[in-house]
Structures are given as structure tokens and as C-alpha cells.
Write a structure and sequence with these properties.
heterodimer, A: alpha+beta, eight-stranded mixed beta sheet, two-stranded antiparallel sheet, globular, B: alpha/beta, Glutaredoxin, 2 domains, 6 helices, 47% helix
């Protein structure tokens, strides 16, 4: 019986959230309300004093995401005081990746000392709006009078393997440009990541 | 006579004990296997049941059930940066080239690998060549990638791509690639098609047949 169900489920196909859907640079990002690892709901509108956000789709189980954890922590340390906090969102279906379930997220956050919200997109409704396809996947938003505008989409930097060999810190350059009211040079970058599990 | 008897009885006793031990181990591992299956089934049932959007979407991926042991194996492996790999994406030899980007840590990639292997075997004579481009981390080539290749007896050509500047090369493979894997390029001479998706064997075969 259990084997039959297993086979049945395995043979089902993947839903593909195609690339090209979701926010583009310049689009207004809708606010969301997602559960944090402490059980509280978090929305962008909670951050009255923020100038913008570094929205980062990440998870426990993707080796690329894990390689970037320390750099995500560093981003928040540097930019939260300047008005650009990191908002981390875990987009995977936890039935497929039990290692990404809320209690596991909490454990990981405590172990690494995340000092930013680590939210779960439990209904998997937020990441498709952003058009996130993988972890890690970063969206830098700028808070304006007309809403939170997407200003940068892509990778954190240009060397996943070794933080000391990074030549271009894409996210930092983007936030620095926004803070200095300058044009962001690279608004979109690409990187390999783990596909978001549906 | 007495001695022989005693020897035999000791022998039997020993055999009994041994059998019992083996039996126990077998029983234990069988139960463990059942438990594992049940666990996966429950997980999948939950994920299937959770879906509110209808029946068309379901659990698409599971963890590879067999994990590769971390005993290092040293076999030859071709390692390229993107400049080196690019040649294999632009061959003009009248063959259909199926280039799959994958990694041993990527569950959906591992799941679809047998289809690429099957395709390679079934269409070799018809001028189809499969190449598996691993994006495994270089420090794990010996511990993960090579043992995986050996254990699964991969017949398609496997190469490793080691090029950290991903933003430079990902768009060169295809402008539309967001960077998630699995991803596959199927091309013949100048005619190239890109797929940022998982394949079933039937889907894969269909795409290749279009180009035959």
C-alpha cells in the first residue's frame, strides 16, 4: 500500500514556476505577512524606519545557501543600522525538504546566530510573486512613497566558493548606490542555486 | 564417537547462533527499510494532500534514498572553466548534443540522471551524445562526485565545471537561465534549445526526437 502511494507520488510531475515571471527591476513589491521562527508574523510594513530591504530567499538544506549564511549575516550587520535590514524567507515545501521545517529553521538560526527574521513561506505564495527560483536568491527593495520598489535581483557576490576571493559584491554595491542616491550599475545578476522545492 | 558427537553439537549450536544473528540482522534491516518507506510515503501523502491547487501538482522531488558514501575515490575527471566548457556547447558535428547541468547534492538532478543515461544508451547509434556537466563543489570531487560516478556506473561523459564567476557564464549558456539546476541544453549544429526544468524520460525523448 505504502509502496503504491510512493510510486504514485513519484510519478507525478514537477510544476515549473517559469523564469521570467515575478517581479522585474522597477516593479512594486507587494507586502506580505509570514511567520517568523519565533512564531510572530512579520510584514515589511512593520519596519517603520527602514529605507528598504534585502529580501533573501534561502534555506537550511541547499549547500549554496549554507555557503552564503555568514555573508547574509554580515550583510544584515552592516546594512540594518543603515536602514536596509535582511529579511530571510524560506520558500521550500517542507514535506519535500523536512530539513527546512520551521523547528529546523529555528535550530539553524540559533546555531548561526541569525539576527534578522527568518520567515517561512508556508503556503508558497510569496516566492512566486517575487519570481524567486532558487536559494539563495536576493531582491533588494527600496522603500518609496509609492511602495517598495524592486531595485536589484540576483546573487550576493561573484564567488560562492570563497568569500575572500570575491571581486564584486553585487548586493552591497546595489545598497550602497541606493543609500547614495546613485544608479545601480548591475541591477540583475545570475548565480547557480538549488531550485525551490514545490 | 563421543568426541565427534560433541564436536557436531557444538558446531550446530554455533550455526544456530550464527543463523539467529543473521536472521535478526535481516529482520532488523527489513523493518528499518519498511519504516523508511512508510516515512517517505507519509511525507508524500502529506505533501500530496496539502496541495490546495488541485491534482495537477504533486511531490516533485524526494531526497535520493541512497546516499553516497564519503570514501574518497580517485578516477580521472575532466575539469573545465567556462571558457573550456564552451567548446562542448558549440560543436558543429551533425550530432545532437544533450548537455545536462547537475550536481550530486541536487535531488531532482539525481532523480532524472537515469533518464539521461537511458537516452545516451538508446540513441547513441542515432548520433545523440549526452554530456553531464557536474556543478559539484571542487573540494568534494573526490569524496562525492567520483564515488557517485563509480557507484552509479555512469556511461555518459561526465565533466566538472569549476568557474565561480557564475554571473559571467550563466547568461552565455542561455540568457533565460535564472541559475537553478537541473538545466539542460539540447543542440545540433547551430540549433540550440534550453530547458530550466526537470525531465521525465518521455519528455526528454520527445525533445530529442524533434531534432533527429
Amino acid at each position: 500500500m505504502s509502496v503504491a502511494i510512493l510510486v504514485l507520488c513519484l510519478s507525478a510531475f514537477t510544476l515549473n514556476i517559469g523564469a521570467g515571471e515575478g517581479y522585474k527591476v522597477g516593479d512594486k513589491a507587494e507586502d506580505f505577512s509570514l511567520k517568523n521562527i519565533d512564531g510572530k508574523m512579520v510584514s515589511l510594513s512593520d519596519y517603520k524606519g527602514a529605507k528598504g530591504f534585502i529580501v533573501t530567499f534561502t534555506c537550511n538544506t541547499c549547500p549554496y545557501a549554507v555557503m552564503y549564511e555568514d555573508r547574509i549575516i554580515a550583510l544584515n550587520k552592516k546594512y540594518a543600522p543603515m536602514g536596509y535590514p535582511v529579511i530571510a524567507i524560506m520558500p521550500n515545501n517542507v514535506a519535500v525538504k523536512p530539513g527546512d521545517a520551521l523547528p529546523e529553521m529555528k535550530k539553524r538560526a540559533e546555531k548561526k546566530g541569525f539576527d534578522f527574521p527568518y520567515l517561512i513561506d508556508a503556503d508558497q505564495t510569496v516566492y512566486p510573486k517575487f519570481g524567486a527560483t532558487k536559494t539563495p536568491h536576493v531582491f533588494v527593495l527600496e522603500k518609496t512613497n509609492s511602495g517598495n520598489i524592486v531595485q536589484y535581483i540576483g546573487a550576493i557576490d561573484d564567488n560562492y566558493k570563497d568569500a575572500s576571493l570575491v571581486r564584486t559584491k553585487y548586493v552591497e554595491l546595489a545598497v550602497d548606490a541606493l543609500l547614495g542616491s546613485k544608479e545601480i550599475k548591475e541591477k540583475e545578476t545570475k548565480a547557480i542555486g538549488c531550485s525551490i522545492k514545490v | 564417537m563421543k568426541i565427534v558427537l560433541r564436536k557436531t553439537s557444538i558446531y550446530f549450536l554455533f550455526k544456530c547462533l550464527l543463523n539467529y544473528k543473521i536472521f535478526n540482522e535481516v529482520l532488523f534491516s527489513f523493518m528499518l527499510m519498511k519504516l523508511k518507506l512508510l516515512f517517505i510515503a507519509i511525507l508524500l501523502m502529506v505533501s500530496c494532500g496539502k496541495n490546495k491547487k488541485g491534482n495537477d501538482i504533486s511531490a516533485s522531488e524526494v531526497e535520493p534514498i541512497e546516499h553516497v558514501e564519503t570514501k574518497a575515490i580517485d578516477i580521472p575527471l575532466e575539469i573545465y572553466d567556462y571558457a573550456g566548457l564552451e567548446t562542448f556547447l558549440n560543436l558543429k558535428d551533425d550530432k545532437i548534443h544533450v548537455v545536462n547541468f547537475w550536481a550530486t547534492w541536487c535531488a531532482p538532478c539525481v532523480k532524472e540522471l537515469p533518464y539521461f543515461e537511458k537516452l545516451n544508451d538508446a540513441y547513441k547509434e542515432k548520433g545523440v551524445e549526452v554530456m553531464l556537466v557536474s556543478l559539484d563543489f571542487p573540494h568534494l570531487y573526490d569524496k562525492k562526485l567520483k564515488p557517485f560516478i563509480v557507484k552509479n556506473n555512469l556511461q555518459s561523459k561526465v565533466v566538472a565545471l569549476d568557474d565561480a564567476d557564475m554571473n559571467a557564464w550563466i547568461p552565455k549558456v542561455d540568457e533565460s537561465w535564472s541559475g537553478s539546476i537541473p538545466a539542460t541544453v539540447i543542440y545540433k549544429n547551430g540549433d540550440s534549445h534550453f530547458y530550466e526544468q526537470s525531465f521525465t524520460y518521455e519528455e526528454l525523448e520527445k525533445e530529442v526526437k524533434k531534432m533527429l
